[in-house]
Amino acid sequence: MNNMKSLFEHLLILRSPGVGPVTYEKLLGRFGSVEAVIESLNPSQDLRDSIMREIDTAAQMDIKFVFDTDEFYPAGLRRLKNHPPILTVRGNMETLRHESVAMVGTRHATAVGMEFVANMATAFAEHNICVVSGMAMGTDSAAHIGALRAKGETNTIAVLAGGVDYIWPLENESLYYEILERGAVVSEMPIGFVPKGTNFVQRNRLVAGIGEKLILSEADLKSGSMKTAEFAREYGRIVYAVPSHPADSRAAGPNSLIRSGQALLCQGVSDFFSNTKIKEKSLQKNESENEILNKIGTVPLSESVLAEIVGKSISEIKRELVILELQGLIEKQDNGYVRL
């Protein structure tokens, strides 16, 4: 790892107004050294103080700064022109060194589409291939949850549009912490940064860059997921698309890529692993999920009441509730969960 002085100096450049990966490289090329760049930028004391606070916060939250010269920097991303010089990482650093596949799609995915993605993600994780996505609702969540079904660690990477400590959407708070335990959360933005619209496009660029191939599930023709697929093609990645019914607008994105020859047809894990079938356990709800589902009816039940009924803590049942909600079997309302 780089020492504290080097980290501080590089962050002084990267956190300066108007400086991104492209400008960062141009400045270093023009001035020849970090010290000369800093002298030319003449950063304010406020900026210097904010960087010290960021470094202190990172130490308190066990967040690591990963330079593109470090062994943990994702190899595929490092090879790309204008990649982020520094990433912030929270979780298991070893996750970043694994072979990986990006899985993306709409936030408004169908229950069938999400379960298809989750099952594929489980298969990839069971083959020691890390699943990369953006931790959004819908397809992204299904990809992460599917990967987490597999045993072991280093199963999944969540790439965030905001700071690595900024949980968004809030509905995925429990998923965020499970990813921290079993994988890694990554960002190129400052710690504590609250994302704006354009930052999600930057996030998509990283998802495509970290994944060594990309699978596109349901997606509207003009969507962030389609932009991620475009990034992946630009980076020389193979793009796979999952076909769907033409009458559904969410089929427009993947179907168009297949028709134009910009993506390969994806029909399941057999496209990637010979003689491999999705394990039966991945197609069925586990016993814990069934137990919770059987207790939910038309009258809303809160997490605390459900936890008491099944004899578990709230944190223990949260993941099962997310899975059941993704599968379209339950719905979260103001007063609790109801069965659909």
Question: In percent, how helical is the residue content?
Answer: 40-55%
Mean pLDDT over all positions: 91
Name of the level-1 CATH class of the largest domain: Alpha Beta
Shape: globular
**What is the terminal-to-terminal distance?**
51 Å
Architecture per CATH nomenclature, i.e. the level-2 architecture of the largest domain: 3-Layer(aba) Sandwich
> What structural class do the secondary elements suggest?
alpha/beta
Strand content: 5-15%
What's the helix count?
15
Provide the low-confidence segments as ranges. 277-286
Find the CATH topology of the largest domain.
Answer: Rossmann fold
Read across the widest sheet, the strand sequence of neighbours is: 1-2-6-5-4-3-7-8-9
Overall radius of gyration: 21 Å
* Strands, count: 11
